[in-house]
């Protein structure tokens, strides 16, 4: 995760993730690794596509995990991240006329 993030903001986010997960009946807490993975994924979508792509990247990861196409949220985020990179490469190829 980038060091530029405000530690108080991250503390607030992690507390919110914990409270929200409990409120929604999640059996496991959202740990720091999951938080960091999703921040990286949504940050990449926001910067490489357009800012509103961030929640959709998270939605696609949730869909992959919920549908059983990924065994964990981390794996789902990695799959979506790879798809983002592939789409970006395809777009770059089109921009250069390849």
Descriptive account of the structure:
- The protein is built from 4 helices and no strands.
- It has 98 residues and is an all-alpha fold.
- Helix 2 (32-48) packs across helix 3 and helix 3 crosses helix 4 (73-95).
- 12% of the residues are buried.
- The mean pLDDT is 89.
Defining key terms:
globular; 98 residues; single chain; mainly alpha
Put the structure in a nutshell:
The protein is mainly alpha-helical. It is built from four helices and no strands.
Q: CA-to-CA gap between the ends?
A: 33 Å
Taken in chain order, the helices and strands follow as HHHH
Mean pLDDT score? 89
Number of strands: 0
Proportion of helical residues: over 70%
Biggest sheet descriptor: none
Give the oligomer, counting copies of the same chain as homo and different chains as hetero.
single chain
Note poorly predicted spans. none
By secondary-structure content and strand pairing, the structural class works out as mainly alpha
From the spread of the alpha carbons, the general shape counts as: globular
Number of helices: 4
Percent of residues in beta strands? under 5%
Radius of gyration: 15 Å
Write the layout of secondary structure elements.
Blueprint: H1 7-23, H2 32-48, H3 53-66, H4 73-95
């Amino acid at each position: 995760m980038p060091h530029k993030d405000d530690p108080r903001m991250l503390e607030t986010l992690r507390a919110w993730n914990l409270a929200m997960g409990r409120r929604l009946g999640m059996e496991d807490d959202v740990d720091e690794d999951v938080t960091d993975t999703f921040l990286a994924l949504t940050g990449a979508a926001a910067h490489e596509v357009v800012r509103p792509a961030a929640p959709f990247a998270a939605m696609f990861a949730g869909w992959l995990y919920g549908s059983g196409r990924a065994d964990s949220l981390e794996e789902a985020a990695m799959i979506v991240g790879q798809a983002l990179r592939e789409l970006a490469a395809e777009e770059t190829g089109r921009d250069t006329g390849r």
